[in-house]
Design brief:
Elements: H1 3-9, H2 12-38, H3 43-54, H4 58-83, H5 88-108, H6 112-126, H7 130-140, H8 143-171, H9 178-197, H10 223-235, H11 238-267, H12 273-300, H13 306-326, H14 332-361, H15 366-379, H16 381-395, H17 397-417
Helix pairs in contact: 2-7, 2-8, 2-9, 3-11, 4-6, 4-7, 4-15, 4-16, 5-6, 5-7, 5-9, 7-15, 8-9, 8-12, 8-14, 11-12, 11-14, 11-15, 11-16, 11-17, 12-13, 12-14, 13-14, 13-17, 14-15, 16-17
Protein backbone atom coordinates (compact mmCIF):
# COMPACT_ATOMS: atom_id res chain seq x y z
CA UNK A 1 0.00 0.00 0.00
CA UNK A 2 1.49 3.37 -1.04
CA UNK A 3 1.20 6.44 1.14
CA UNK A 4 -1.40 8.05 -1.17
CA UNK A 5 -3.44 4.87 -1.36
CA UNK A 6 -3.54 4.85 2.43
CA UNK A 7 -5.69 7.98 2.33
CA UNK A 8 -7.68 6.62 -0.61
CA UNK A 9 -8.34 3.33 1.15
CA UNK A 10 -10.22 5.09 3.94
CA UNK A 11 -13.91 5.96 3.72
CA UNK A 12 -14.34 9.60 2.74
CA UNK A 13 -15.45 10.74 6.21
CA UNK A 14 -12.63 8.80 7.92
CA UNK A 15 -10.05 10.22 5.50
CA UNK A 16 -11.31 13.71 6.30
CA UNK A 17 -11.04 13.02 10.05
CA UNK A 18 -7.51 11.64 9.65
CA UNK A 19 -6.34 14.74 7.80
CA UNK A 20 -8.00 16.98 10.39
CA UNK A 21 -6.19 15.24 13.25
CA UNK A 22 -2.95 15.24 11.28
CA UNK A 23 -3.13 19.04 10.86
CA UNK A 24 -4.20 19.51 14.48
CA UNK A 25 -1.33 17.37 15.73
CA UNK A 26 1.26 19.19 13.61
CA UNK A 27 0.03 22.65 14.66
CA UNK A 28 -0.37 21.84 18.36
CA UNK A 29 3.02 20.14 18.63
CA UNK A 30 4.63 23.07 16.76
CA UNK A 31 3.22 25.53 19.29
CA UNK A 32 4.24 23.29 22.17
CA UNK A 33 7.81 22.82 20.97
CA UNK A 34 8.17 26.56 20.26
CA UNK A 35 7.24 27.18 23.90
CA UNK A 36 10.03 24.87 25.09
CA UNK A 37 12.40 27.41 23.51
CA UNK A 38 10.70 30.20 25.46
CA UNK A 39 12.07 28.65 28.65
CA UNK A 40 15.43 27.68 27.18
CA UNK A 41 16.83 30.34 24.86
CA UNK A 42 15.80 33.24 27.09
CA UNK A 43 19.17 32.88 28.83
CA UNK A 44 21.10 34.34 25.88
CA UNK A 45 19.47 37.77 26.28
CA UNK A 46 19.85 37.71 30.07
CA UNK A 47 23.58 36.86 29.93
CA UNK A 48 24.99 40.40 29.45
CA UNK A 49 22.85 41.64 32.38
CA UNK A 50 23.94 38.72 34.56
CA UNK A 51 27.60 39.51 33.81
CA UNK A 52 27.11 43.13 34.84
CA UNK A 53 24.84 42.52 37.84
CA UNK A 54 26.45 39.42 39.35
CA UNK A 55 29.99 39.55 37.95
CA UNK A 56 29.64 36.16 36.25
CA UNK A 57 32.40 35.50 33.68
CA UNK A 58 32.01 34.26 30.12
CA UNK A 59 33.65 30.99 31.15
CA UNK A 60 30.98 30.54 33.85
CA UNK A 61 28.20 31.35 31.41
CA UNK A 62 29.75 29.01 28.85
CA UNK A 63 29.83 26.30 31.50
CA UNK A 64 26.08 26.79 32.12
CA UNK A 65 25.46 26.39 28.39
CA UNK A 66 27.67 23.30 28.16
CA UNK A 67 26.23 21.50 31.20
CA UNK A 68 22.70 22.34 30.09
CA UNK A 69 23.42 21.06 26.58
CA UNK A 70 25.08 17.84 27.74
CA UNK A 71 22.25 17.04 30.15
CA UNK A 72 19.75 17.93 27.43
CA UNK A 73 21.46 15.59 24.96
CA UNK A 74 21.49 12.70 27.43
CA UNK A 75 17.88 13.41 28.35
CA UNK A 76 16.77 13.56 24.72
CA UNK A 77 18.46 10.20 24.10
CA UNK A 78 17.13 8.54 27.26
CA UNK A 79 13.67 9.98 26.80
CA UNK A 80 13.73 8.79 23.19
CA UNK A 81 13.38 5.24 24.49
CA UNK A 82 10.50 6.33 26.70
CA UNK A 83 8.97 8.51 23.99
CA UNK A 84 8.56 5.55 21.66
CA UNK A 85 6.53 3.71 24.32
CA UNK A 86 4.35 6.23 26.20
CA UNK A 87 1.51 8.66 25.52
CA UNK A 88 3.03 11.69 23.78
CA UNK A 89 0.45 14.14 25.15
CA UNK A 90 1.20 13.41 28.82
CA UNK A 91 4.94 13.31 28.24
CA UNK A 92 5.19 16.65 26.43
CA UNK A 93 2.95 18.57 28.83
CA UNK A 94 4.91 17.30 31.85
CA UNK A 95 8.25 18.36 30.37
CA UNK A 96 7.02 21.87 29.51
CA UNK A 97 5.56 22.48 32.99
CA UNK A 98 8.74 21.32 34.75
CA UNK A 99 10.92 23.50 32.48
CA UNK A 100 8.80 26.53 33.33
CA UNK A 101 9.15 25.79 37.06
CA UNK A 102 12.96 25.61 36.67
CA UNK A 103 12.96 29.01 34.98
CA UNK A 104 10.98 30.58 37.81
CA UNK A 105 13.44 29.20 40.37
CA UNK A 106 16.37 30.42 38.22
CA UNK A 107 14.90 33.93 38.13
CA UNK A 108 14.77 34.09 41.93
CA UNK A 109 18.33 32.78 42.39
CA UNK A 110 21.57 34.69 42.98
CA UNK A 111 24.27 32.03 43.59
CA UNK A 112 26.30 30.61 40.70
CA UNK A 113 25.99 27.06 42.09
CA UNK A 114 22.18 27.31 42.20
CA UNK A 115 22.14 28.69 38.65
CA UNK A 116 24.15 25.71 37.46
CA UNK A 117 22.03 23.08 39.23
CA UNK A 118 18.70 24.58 38.14
CA UNK A 119 19.81 25.05 34.53
CA UNK A 120 21.01 21.43 34.38
CA UNK A 121 17.60 20.31 35.67
CA UNK A 122 16.01 22.47 33.01
CA UNK A 123 18.20 20.70 30.45
CA UNK A 124 16.80 17.33 31.53
CA UNK A 125 13.17 18.47 31.34
CA UNK A 126 13.83 20.13 27.96
CA UNK A 127 14.80 16.67 26.69
CA UNK A 128 11.16 15.65 27.18
CA UNK A 129 10.07 17.97 24.35
CA UNK A 130 11.20 16.45 21.08
CA UNK A 131 10.79 12.66 21.65
CA UNK A 132 6.98 12.84 21.97
CA UNK A 133 6.92 15.04 18.87
CA UNK A 134 8.94 12.45 16.93
CA UNK A 135 6.43 9.82 17.99
CA UNK A 136 3.48 11.99 16.95
CA UNK A 137 4.86 13.01 13.57
CA UNK A 138 5.95 9.55 12.43
CA UNK A 139 2.56 8.09 13.42
CA UNK A 140 0.53 10.80 11.71
CA UNK A 141 2.61 11.53 8.57
CA UNK A 142 3.46 8.95 5.84
CA UNK A 143 7.21 8.53 5.13
CA UNK A 144 7.14 10.09 1.65
CA UNK A 145 5.58 13.26 3.09
CA UNK A 146 7.76 13.39 6.20
CA UNK A 147 10.60 15.58 4.91
CA UNK A 148 8.25 18.30 3.64
CA UNK A 149 5.79 18.28 6.54
CA UNK A 150 8.39 17.76 9.25
CA UNK A 151 10.41 20.65 7.77
CA UNK A 152 7.32 22.80 8.26
CA UNK A 153 7.04 21.45 11.82
CA UNK A 154 10.74 22.13 12.44
CA UNK A 155 10.13 25.84 12.01
CA UNK A 156 8.66 25.66 15.52
CA UNK A 157 12.01 26.00 17.27
CA UNK A 158 13.06 28.91 15.08
CA UNK A 159 9.72 30.60 15.73
CA UNK A 160 10.07 30.02 19.47
CA UNK A 161 13.73 31.07 19.65
CA UNK A 162 13.17 34.07 17.37
CA UNK A 163 10.17 35.39 19.31
CA UNK A 164 11.78 34.89 22.72
CA UNK A 165 14.97 36.80 21.87
CA UNK A 166 12.91 39.72 20.56
CA UNK A 167 10.53 39.53 23.52
CA UNK A 168 13.34 39.32 26.08
CA UNK A 169 15.29 42.02 24.24
CA UNK A 170 12.62 44.45 25.50
CA UNK A 171 11.74 42.69 28.76
CA UNK A 172 15.38 42.83 29.89
CA UNK A 173 14.97 46.58 30.40
CA UNK A 174 12.91 45.62 33.49
CA UNK A 175 15.84 43.54 34.75
CA UNK A 176 17.38 40.28 33.53
CA UNK A 177 15.26 38.20 35.96
CA UNK A 178 12.09 39.07 34.02
CA UNK A 179 13.60 37.18 31.05
CA UNK A 180 12.81 34.05 33.09
CA UNK A 181 9.56 35.00 34.85
CA UNK A 182 7.46 36.16 31.89
CA UNK A 183 8.43 33.38 29.44
CA UNK A 184 7.55 30.88 32.19
CA UNK A 185 4.02 32.26 32.42
CA UNK A 186 3.63 31.91 28.65
CA UNK A 187 4.93 28.32 28.79
CA UNK A 188 2.52 27.33 31.57
CA UNK A 189 -0.43 28.72 29.61
CA UNK A 190 0.83 26.78 26.59
CA UNK A 191 0.93 23.57 28.62
CA UNK A 192 -2.79 23.97 29.34
CA UNK A 193 -3.44 24.40 25.61
CA UNK A 194 -1.43 21.25 24.77
CA UNK A 195 -3.39 19.20 27.29
CA UNK A 196 -6.62 19.91 25.42
CA UNK A 197 -5.26 20.02 21.85
CA UNK A 198 -3.02 16.93 21.65
CA UNK A 199 -3.84 13.23 21.49
CA UNK A 200 -1.44 10.32 20.91
CA UNK A 201 -1.50 8.03 17.85
CA UNK A 202 -4.33 7.66 15.29
CA UNK A 203 -5.49 4.59 17.17
CA UNK A 204 -6.17 6.73 20.27
CA UNK A 205 -8.90 8.65 18.39
CA UNK A 206 -10.35 5.61 16.63
CA UNK A 207 -8.46 5.98 13.34
CA UNK A 208 -6.30 3.39 11.53
CA UNK A 209 -2.51 3.47 11.80
CA UNK A 210 -0.46 4.37 8.72
CA UNK A 211 0.89 1.34 6.86
CA UNK A 212 3.37 1.51 3.98
CA UNK A 213 4.00 -1.07 1.28
CA UNK A 214 7.12 -2.63 2.82
CA UNK A 215 5.70 -2.70 6.34
CA UNK A 216 3.93 -5.84 7.44
CA UNK A 217 0.82 -5.92 9.56
CA UNK A 218 2.52 -6.49 12.89
CA UNK A 219 1.17 -6.59 16.44
CA UNK A 220 2.39 -4.18 19.10
CA UNK A 221 6.02 -4.91 19.98
CA UNK A 222 6.93 -6.23 23.38
CA UNK A 223 10.04 -4.97 25.14
CA UNK A 224 12.33 -7.69 23.75
CA UNK A 225 11.18 -7.15 20.17
CA UNK A 226 11.48 -3.36 20.59
CA UNK A 227 15.09 -3.67 21.76
CA UNK A 228 15.88 -5.84 18.73
CA UNK A 229 14.39 -3.21 16.43
CA UNK A 230 16.47 -0.49 18.09
CA UNK A 231 19.67 -2.54 17.79
CA UNK A 232 19.04 -3.28 14.13
CA UNK A 233 17.54 -0.07 12.82
CA UNK A 234 19.37 2.48 15.00
CA UNK A 235 22.67 1.26 16.42
CA UNK A 236 23.27 -1.20 13.57
CA UNK A 237 22.80 1.42 10.84
CA UNK A 238 26.15 3.08 9.96
CA UNK A 239 24.43 6.05 8.30
CA UNK A 240 22.63 6.97 11.51
CA UNK A 241 26.06 7.06 13.20
CA UNK A 242 27.47 9.25 10.43
CA UNK A 243 24.64 11.79 10.49
CA UNK A 244 24.81 11.79 14.30
CA UNK A 245 28.48 12.83 14.11
CA UNK A 246 27.61 15.43 11.47
CA UNK A 247 24.95 16.75 13.84
CA UNK A 248 27.68 17.54 16.36
CA UNK A 249 29.16 20.07 13.92
CA UNK A 250 25.76 21.45 12.86
CA UNK A 251 24.76 22.19 16.45
CA UNK A 252 28.14 23.69 17.31
CA UNK A 253 27.62 26.33 14.63
CA UNK A 254 23.94 26.82 15.37
CA UNK A 255 24.31 27.27 19.12
CA UNK A 256 27.41 29.41 18.85
CA UNK A 257 25.21 32.01 17.11
CA UNK A 258 22.01 31.38 19.08
CA UNK A 259 23.58 31.33 22.57
CA UNK A 260 26.36 33.85 22.11
CA UNK A 261 24.78 36.01 19.39
CA UNK A 262 23.60 38.92 21.55
CA UNK A 263 26.92 39.03 23.45
CA UNK A 264 28.97 38.58 20.27
CA UNK A 265 27.13 41.33 18.39
CA UNK A 266 27.26 43.82 21.26
CA UNK A 267 30.96 43.25 22.05
CA UNK A 268 32.49 42.43 18.66
CA UNK A 269 30.26 44.35 16.22
CA UNK A 270 29.19 47.04 18.77
CA UNK A 271 25.44 46.57 18.26
CA UNK A 272 23.06 47.58 21.09
CA UNK A 273 21.23 44.74 22.81
CA UNK A 274 17.77 45.51 21.33
CA UNK A 275 19.15 45.45 17.76
CA UNK A 276 21.17 42.34 18.60
CA UNK A 277 17.94 40.57 19.60
CA UNK A 278 16.40 41.41 16.24
CA UNK A 279 19.53 40.24 14.38
CA UNK A 280 19.54 36.87 16.13
CA UNK A 281 15.82 36.66 15.37
CA UNK A 282 16.67 37.27 11.69
CA UNK A 283 19.05 34.29 11.89
CA UNK A 284 16.11 32.22 13.19
CA UNK A 285 13.49 33.55 10.76
CA UNK A 286 15.83 32.93 7.83
CA UNK A 287 16.28 29.45 9.25
CA UNK A 288 12.53 28.88 8.89
CA UNK A 289 12.76 29.59 5.17
CA UNK A 290 15.88 27.44 4.96
CA UNK A 291 14.16 24.47 6.59
CA UNK A 292 11.17 24.72 4.26
CA UNK A 293 13.46 24.97 1.22
CA UNK A 294 15.59 22.05 2.42
CA UNK A 295 12.54 19.86 3.04
CA UNK A 296 11.15 20.65 -0.41
CA UNK A 297 14.53 19.98 -2.06
CA UNK A 298 14.90 16.68 -0.19
CA UNK A 299 11.54 15.33 -1.39
CA UNK A 300 11.52 16.87 -4.88
CA UNK A 301 15.20 16.96 -5.91
CA UNK A 302 17.03 14.31 -3.87
CA UNK A 303 14.30 11.67 -3.66
CA UNK A 304 13.94 11.86 0.12
CA UNK A 305 17.68 11.56 0.78
CA UNK A 306 18.23 14.25 3.40
CA UNK A 307 22.02 13.90 3.80
CA UNK A 308 22.50 14.97 0.17
CA UNK A 309 20.64 18.22 0.81
CA UNK A 310 22.74 18.68 3.96
CA UNK A 311 25.99 18.62 1.95
CA UNK A 312 24.86 21.60 -0.13
CA UNK A 313 23.43 23.52 2.85
CA UNK A 314 26.42 23.01 5.13
CA UNK A 315 28.90 24.08 2.46
CA UNK A 316 26.91 27.28 1.83
CA UNK A 317 26.66 27.97 5.58
CA UNK A 318 30.46 27.78 5.80
CA UNK A 319 30.76 30.44 3.09
CA UNK A 320 28.39 32.88 4.82
CA UNK A 321 30.00 32.45 8.23
CA UNK A 322 33.31 33.22 6.53
CA UNK A 323 31.85 36.41 5.04
CA UNK A 324 30.52 37.49 8.44
CA UNK A 325 33.93 36.84 9.99
CA UNK A 326 35.71 38.86 7.27
CA UNK A 327 33.51 41.98 7.57
CA UNK A 328 35.03 44.78 9.64
CA UNK A 329 32.46 47.10 11.28
CA UNK A 330 29.72 46.41 8.68
CA UNK A 331 26.45 48.40 8.61
CA UNK A 332 23.72 46.67 10.60
CA UNK A 333 21.65 45.83 7.51
CA UNK A 334 24.58 44.04 5.85
CA UNK A 335 25.57 42.13 8.98
CA UNK A 336 21.92 41.10 9.45
CA UNK A 337 21.68 39.96 5.82
CA UNK A 338 24.81 37.80 6.01
CA UNK A 339 23.85 36.38 9.41
CA UNK A 340 20.39 35.60 8.04
CA UNK A 341 21.91 33.84 5.02
CA UNK A 342 23.99 31.68 7.37
CA UNK A 343 20.82 30.84 9.32
CA UNK A 344 18.99 29.95 6.08
CA UNK A 345 21.70 27.41 5.30
CA UNK A 346 22.44 25.91 8.74
CA UNK A 347 18.84 25.17 9.66
CA UNK A 348 18.35 22.88 6.66
CA UNK A 349 20.76 20.28 8.10
CA UNK A 350 19.47 20.92 11.63
CA UNK A 351 15.98 19.86 10.52
CA UNK A 352 16.98 17.12 8.11
CA UNK A 353 19.18 15.18 10.54
CA UNK A 354 16.13 14.34 12.64
CA UNK A 355 13.99 13.63 9.58
CA UNK A 356 16.61 11.32 8.06
CA UNK A 357 17.11 9.49 11.36
CA UNK A 358 13.34 9.04 11.86
CA UNK A 359 12.85 7.71 8.33
CA UNK A 360 15.85 5.35 8.48
CA UNK A 361 14.77 3.96 11.86
CA UNK A 362 11.06 3.83 10.81
CA UNK A 363 8.23 4.85 13.10
CA UNK A 364 8.96 1.85 15.33
CA UNK A 365 12.14 3.47 16.66
CA UNK A 366 11.93 7.08 15.42
CA UNK A 367 12.13 8.79 18.83
CA UNK A 368 15.11 6.63 19.82
CA UNK A 369 16.97 7.45 16.60
CA UNK A 370 16.29 11.16 16.89
CA UNK A 371 17.36 11.07 20.53
CA UNK A 372 20.59 9.34 19.52
CA UNK A 373 21.47 11.99 16.93
CA UNK A 374 20.49 14.63 19.49
CA UNK A 375 22.97 13.17 21.97
CA UNK A 376 25.76 14.04 19.53
CA UNK A 377 24.17 17.39 18.70
CA UNK A 378 24.06 18.57 22.28
CA UNK A 379 27.50 17.21 23.09
CA UNK A 380 28.52 20.09 20.82
CA UNK A 381 27.88 22.51 23.67
CA UNK A 382 31.31 21.52 24.97
CA UNK A 383 32.60 23.61 22.05
CA UNK A 384 29.77 26.11 21.52
CA UNK A 385 29.34 26.87 25.24
CA UNK A 386 32.31 26.41 27.54
CA UNK A 387 34.87 26.09 24.72
CA UNK A 388 33.79 29.23 22.90
CA UNK A 389 33.58 31.18 26.17
CA UNK A 390 37.21 30.28 26.99
CA UNK A 391 38.38 31.03 23.42
CA UNK A 392 36.82 34.49 23.52
CA UNK A 393 38.27 35.34 26.95
CA UNK A 394 41.72 34.12 25.89
CA UNK A 395 41.98 35.17 22.22
CA UNK A 396 38.96 37.31 21.33
CA UNK A 397 35.94 36.93 19.05
CA UNK A 398 37.92 37.05 15.80
CA UNK A 399 39.87 33.91 16.64
CA UNK A 400 36.78 32.10 18.00
CA UNK A 401 34.74 32.65 14.82
CA UNK A 402 37.69 31.45 12.73
CA UNK A 403 37.55 28.17 14.65
CA UNK A 404 33.81 28.03 13.96
CA UNK A 405 34.48 28.12 10.21
CA UNK A 406 36.74 25.06 10.52
CA UNK A 407 33.97 23.28 12.43
CA UNK A 408 31.47 24.06 9.66
CA UNK A 409 33.87 22.57 7.08
CA UNK A 410 34.14 19.40 9.18
CA UNK A 411 30.35 19.13 9.20
CA UNK A 412 30.24 19.38 5.41
CA UNK A 413 32.77 16.55 5.11
CA UNK A 414 30.74 14.34 7.49
CA UNK A 415 27.57 14.73 5.43
CA UNK A 416 29.48 13.77 2.28
CA UNK A 417 30.11 10.36 3.90
CA UNK A 418 26.33 9.88 4.27
CA UNK A 419 25.62 10.67 0.60
CA UNK A 420 24.86 6.99 -0.33
CA UNK A 421 22.23 6.54 2.43
CA UNK A 422 18.76 5.35 1.38
CA UNK A 423 15.69 7.54 1.80
CA UNK A 424 14.16 5.36 4.52
CA UNK A 425 14.40 2.03 6.33
CA UNK A 426 11.06 0.58 5.29
CA UNK A 427 12.43 -1.42 2.36
CA UNK A 428 13.77 -4.96 2.47
CA UNK A 429 16.85 -5.11 4.68
CA UNK A 430 20.08 -6.48 3.33
CA UNK A 431 21.45 -9.57 5.01
Amino acid sequence: MSDNSFYQSLPAEESKRFKYWQRRTIIASMIGYALFYFVRKNLSIAMPGMQEDLGITKTDLGLFLTLHGLIYGVSKFANGFIGDRVNARYFMVTGLVLSAVCNIIFGFSAAVLVFGIVWMLNGWFQGMGFPPCARLLTHWIPPTELATKMSIWNTSHSIGAGIVVIFCGYVVSLGWRWCFFLPSVVALLGAVYLWFALRDTPKSVGLPEIRVAAEQQEPEKDDVAFKQIVRRKVFGNPYIWIIAVANFFVYTVRYAVLDWGPTLLSEWKHVNIEHAGWMVAAFEVSGILGMLAAGWATDRVFGGRGPRTCVVCMAAATVFIGLFWAMDAPPIWLATLVLGAAGFCIYGPQALVGIAAANLATKQAAATAVGFTGLFGYASTILSGWGLGMLVESFGWNYAIGVLIIIALAGTAAFVLAWPAKADGYGKEEK
